[in-house]
């Protein structure tokens, strides 16, 4: 045991070193395999070299090429090792494949190294007529009458059996890989087909898949994890014809890689965390009130759990691994699971959780929100226990209701994303809806439905400001130009980093790319009528910004005011925002205002309006807001930021300081 622990430590260290040097996981795995087989062979050779006596087991092993005895030890080592380096062994099937491969490699080495075996192999070649010259020289054995020849035949068969057995194992493994890919694809498609009907157009099916975080994850995972194995296998020995056909399939994009796969799992955590979904409901396709029939299998839940372990999201790790175990025990399995490894992972996750809990307790910090509020001694507890972040949410909710606003409102934001309203009775009593008929004669014949979401500061949602046809056209002309939202890198201002606080994609709308720009102009006119502010004349508002959020994408809380004189000197601040939703989001994706305790629902064609500035020219800090992670659907918004200088007469200074 001591020596395996030492070996483990050395390995962990070298893996870390290799990771730091940028080696890929598969390169690391290959190195480990090599090291292990070399060190094991070395220790035997070393013993022989020093004239040390080998144990009977070792002698038998060398003679027969049978490695079973030691394999258990090796397997255990690998299992333990894989728990320590989740990054490299994120995938249960990868780890069992690895063990298989190591075994195979050792068998292979031993066949090659054993002269006796080689001799038999050459006899086999001759026997099968592969070595014609030699065959001619050899007398024809008389098997039925010669025990010696028969003996040779037995040995010969053994050498045939071994590679055949190995080949069958390989073919079975290949079949397993292929079947598991096909099953996952068919599983996903069936679910979509049963929801939409089998005749649904490809576009419609694609929309359904992309709208659902579970099918999105499964799609990315197939490309990142399953298909590379499939391609590698097919490239190895598939019939030329089929391979030829497959290799001519045009690929316009680089397929997803491991990074994408990891991110697709992290996306699940973000959705879960913000929307308050428990793993069990989520993995069974229940996203809030939306019940989809997409489920994750035991092995997939395990994979998700292992990823959480790697990310030190201990609460998620326990929840998902426990779920995987339950699914496995209930037979909801796809045969990829290694129950022993799962149990060890769960134990490890529990240990890590409790260790982090102790650390937190010692430092009197509750900052680690992925912990349960108590130590977990039995995985069953994860189904009833609250997490720190649940408690934080409750606390901040209470404080807000008591009109104490000092508490960090990130948790208010999370509560709002999970569908709570945090407004007090008093605040709510001032809210109402109305039909706007009077602000402009136009509204008299064509009234607008307006909802007051908050009265001070003023926050309204206006319905049907933009029609479905124009919405579709705007989406179609901007979709090509969307780019991941970026933020400036403060260390190097010439560099823009992909933003982690805003994970949507965005672009600016060029009105002239529309078939009929006049239609957009009439929307802007409508906005002018509703807000009483200029938006059309030059300099009165920014170009329209269109942003698109896929599942899990979000925008952290922020103020729209720029607060940088270098950027506002000519136009003035963004005094107000009119944000239009260009799609309806089925679950998640609300625009949440944590200080106000309310959130707007993304409903296609509606717009949300508020002032970012007080009348004294200061940013109104009560208008902090952000976009909650989309849980199901695709969210599109179009922002019109209305500017100060051209509107100074429309939004003049107030008479009182706080206005
Ligand atoms: O997506 C949302 O709900 C909010 C977007 C937003 O606040 C912005 O683009 O400034
Ligand atoms: Fe904003």
Automatic annotation (TrEMBL):
E.C. number(s) listed in UniProt: 1.14.11.2
Cofactor entry? L-ascorbate
Keywords assigned by UniProt, alphabetized: Dioxygenase, Endoplasmic reticulum, Glycoprotein, Iron, Metal-binding, Oxidoreductase, Signal, Vitamin C
Location relative to the cell = Endoplasmic reticulum lumen
Gene Ontology cellular component annotations, sorted alphabetically: endoplasmic reticulum lumen
Fe2OG dioxygenase domain spans which residues? 540-644
**InterPro entries from the entry?**
Oxoglu/Fe-dep_dioxygenase_dom, P4H_N, P4HA-like, Pro_4_hyd_alph, Pro_4_hyd_alph_FE2OG_OXY, TPR-like_helical_dom_sf
Q: Name one GO molecular function term.
A: iron ion binding
User: Per the similarity annotation, which family is this?
Assistant: Belongs to the P4HA family.
Its function, per the record, reads: Catalyzes the post-translational formation of 4-hydroxyproline in -Xaa-Pro-Gly- sequences in collagens and other proteins.
Q: Write down the PANTHER family for this protein, in alphabetical order.
A: PROLYL 4-HYDROXYLASE ALPHA SUBUNIT (PTHR10869), TRANSMEMBRANE PROLYL 4-HYDROXYLASE (PTHR10869:SF246)
Q: What is this protein called?
A: procollagen-proline 4-dioxygenase
Q: Origin organism of this chain?
A: Orchesella cincta
Q: Lineage of the native species? A: Eukaryota, Metazoa, Ecdysozoa, Arthropoda, Hexapoda
């Amino acid at each position: 045991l001591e020596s395996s622990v030492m070996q483990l430590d050395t390995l962990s260290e070298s893996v870390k070193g290799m990771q730091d040097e940028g080696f890929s996981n598969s390169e690391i795995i290959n190195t480990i395999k090599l090291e292990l087989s070399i060190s094991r062979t070395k220790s035997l050779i070393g013993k022989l070299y020093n004239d040390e006596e080998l144990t009977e087991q070792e002698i038998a092993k060398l003679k027969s090429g049978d490695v079973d005895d030691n394999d258990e030890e090796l397997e255990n080592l690998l299992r333990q090792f894989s728990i320590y380096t989740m990054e490299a062994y994120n995938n249960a099937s990868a780890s069992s494949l690895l063990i298989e491969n190591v075994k195979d490699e050792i068998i292979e080495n031993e066949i090659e190294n054993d002269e006796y075996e080689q001799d038999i192999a050459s006899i086999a070649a001759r026997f099968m007529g592969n070595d014609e010259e030699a065959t001619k020289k050899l007398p024809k054995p008389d098997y039925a009458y010669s025990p010696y020849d028969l003996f040779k035949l037995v040995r010969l068969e053994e050498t045939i059996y071994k590679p055949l057995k190995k080949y069958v194992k390989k073919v079975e493994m290949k079949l397993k890989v292929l079947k598991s890919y096909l099953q996952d694809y068919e599983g996903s498609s069936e679910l979509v087909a049963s929801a939409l009907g089998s005749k649904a157009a490809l576009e419609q099916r694609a929309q359904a898949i992309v709208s659902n975080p579970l099918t999105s994850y499964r799609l990315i995972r197939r490309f990142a994890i399953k298909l590379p194995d499939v391609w590698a296998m097919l490239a190895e020995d598939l019939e030329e014809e089929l391979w030829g056909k497959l290799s001519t399939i045009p690929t316009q994009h680089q397929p997803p890689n491991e990074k994408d796969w990891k991110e697709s799992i992290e996306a699940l955590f973000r959705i879960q965390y913000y929307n308050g979904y428990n793993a069990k409901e989520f993995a069974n396709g229940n996203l809030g009130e939306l019940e989809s029939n997409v489920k994750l299998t035991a092995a997939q839940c395990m994979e998700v759990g292992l990823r959480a372990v790697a990310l030190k999201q201990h609460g998620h790790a326990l929840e998902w691994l426990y779920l995987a175990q339950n699914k496995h025990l209930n037979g909801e399995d796809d045969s990829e699971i290694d129950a022993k490894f799962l149990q060890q992972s769960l134990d490890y996750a529990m240990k890590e959780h409790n260790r982090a809990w102790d650390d937190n307790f010692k430092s009197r910090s509750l900052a680690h929100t992925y912990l349960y509020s108590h130590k977990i001694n039995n995985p069953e507890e994860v189904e009833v226990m609250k997490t720190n972040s649940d408690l934080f949410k409750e606390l901040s909710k209470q404080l807000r209701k008591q009109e104490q606003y000092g508490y960090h409102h990130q948790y208010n934001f999370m509560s709002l994303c999970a569908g709570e309203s945090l407004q007090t009775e008093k605040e709510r009593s001032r809210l109402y809806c109305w039909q706007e008929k009077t602000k402009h004669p136009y509204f008299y014949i064509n009234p607008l439905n307006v909802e007051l979401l908050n009265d001070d500061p003023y926050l309204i949602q206006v319905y049907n400001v933009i029609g479905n046809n124009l919405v579709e056209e705007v989406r179609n002309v901007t979709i090509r130009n969307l780019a991941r939202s970026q933020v400036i890198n403060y260390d190097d201002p010439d560099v823009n980093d992909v933003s982690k606080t805003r994970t949507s994609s965005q672009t600016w709308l060029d009105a002239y790319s529309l078939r009929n720009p006049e239609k957009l102009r009439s929307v802007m006119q409508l906005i002018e009528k509703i807000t009483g502010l200029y938006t059309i004349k030059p300099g009165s508002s920014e170009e329209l910004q269109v942003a698109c959020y896929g599942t899990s994408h979000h925008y952290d809380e922020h103020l729209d005011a720029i607060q940088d004189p270098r950027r506002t000197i000519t136009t003035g601040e963004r005094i107000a925002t009119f944000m239009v939703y260009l799609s309806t989001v089925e679950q998640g994706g609300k625009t949440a205002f944590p200080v106000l305790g309310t959130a707007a629902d993304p409903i296609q064609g509606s717009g949300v309006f508020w002032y970012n500035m007080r009348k004294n020219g200061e940013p109104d800090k009560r208008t902090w807001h952000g976009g909650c992670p989309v849980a199901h659907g695709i969210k599109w918004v179009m922002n019109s930021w209305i500017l100060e200088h051209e509107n100074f007469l429309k939004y003049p200074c107030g008479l009182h300081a706080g206005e």
